[in-house]
Amino acid sequence: FLSAYEDDPAKPISSMAFSPEMGCNWLSFESEGVEYMVGAGKMNDKAFLLGSPVLYPTPNRVRNAVMTFEGREFRFPANNNGNFLHGIVKDHAWVSDAPVTSAYGISVTSRITFEPGQSFWELFPIRNTLELTYTLKPGVVRIDFTVVNQDNKARLPFGLAIHPFFSIIGPRESVRIQVPAQKWMEATDLLPSGRLIDLDKGPADLRQPVSLSKLNLDDVYWGLSSAGPQVIYYDHIGKKVTLKACDLFSYSVVFTPPDRPFFCVENQSCSTDAHNLWAKGLKDESRLSILNPGESLTAWIECSVSNQ
Hints:
By secondary structure, the chain is mainly beta. Helix content is 3%, strand content 47%. It is globular, with a radius of gyration of 19 Å.
């Protein structure tokens, strides 16, 4: 658990929890006594860890649990109707440094490395490290990422995402979401075709706030930028949660199951099934990130609570 305060350290106004042992999953975000995340729950009568898993190097689904990149084939254990869902790192322990404190907040850096000897090495045998720093300030959680290609020969193809399960606070109709995307990604069985569709021809146009009571989505939106953050409006309590992100996170997956006490607005750096779309020549649509040996990339997401 981490906590942040304004003036009196005995009266923290924000706290968060994450678990390095469970994929560096961000499990809780509480501000002024209100919990905005669902750390665990049930789906299909099975208990699940929810929170906000880190999805890497394959956010969301990989078609038929297999992908190719520059002549190499990568096979994964099918875990979702014959597909591979949510990447590798969410199921493994990360290594964490000691917390670093300042006058008004606290941060912790954790990392996971793909190298021989790791149980998951054979799934994605390219040497690389994903490093993540959680920083908590009053009303704000910031996530800073660094990806480093440490392989001597292979290029590193990857996508990066978070998958936060947000609480429904108050009546369902009083929660509104805004996703200022440019296009919706056409999909069949939750796997994008690569076609980018005008929002007025998709399942929902979220450029203006829309109530959860009107939505039943599990869809990919394309064309977000740092200039237009995603926003969750909690009208029942007069608060909003703003999801700002750097330009790398130009996609959002929006998941609004009508029979669950949660919903998801997921910053994602690439399309679902991005590696396979890229292999088909749909590079602009997939926006797969690729690092040459020795190269690195940094990115960030910031989640903040404020009054409406």
